[in-house]
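subagent[fold] <- orchestrator: predict structure for attached chain, return tokens only, no commentary.
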Amino acid sequence: MHELGIVFHIIKSVEDIAAEARIGRVSAVTLELGEVSGIIPHYLEDCWRWACERHEVMRGCELVIEEIPARTYCEACGATYETVAHGRTCPVCGSERTYLVQGDEAVIKEIATPEEGPGDGERPRAGLSAPGGAPGTSA
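subagent[fold] -> orchestrator:
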């Protein structure tokens, strides 16, 4: 279960941002999670609840997950299509000269404080490593 390591990385990133902004408590974190990121939302949420209780600034913090659909681009015909439905083969022309353009990311979109609700917080856009990727990049 690599979700626990991902949660620790998110919490560390949020705590660093909170310390820099002199925020004493975080009430919600919104995470953009790619459809093919390899991260299982249910496991992430279970780890989140457990880990947040062990960090003062994060205690009781809500995790809001926004799923980013996976999209693939075909270099042969220029079509962009749903990755999960069609895989690597372009449904328009049949080419396999394709690459993923979105859907493998894990990005902290927003951090909310107790005075704010989700949707009103800081927007740090902190990138996380997707499996096989570097922070802030896609794998």
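orchestrator: received. Logging for downstream: The beta strands are 28-34, 62-68, 71-74, 80-82, 98-102, 106-112, 126-127. The mean pLDDT is 87.
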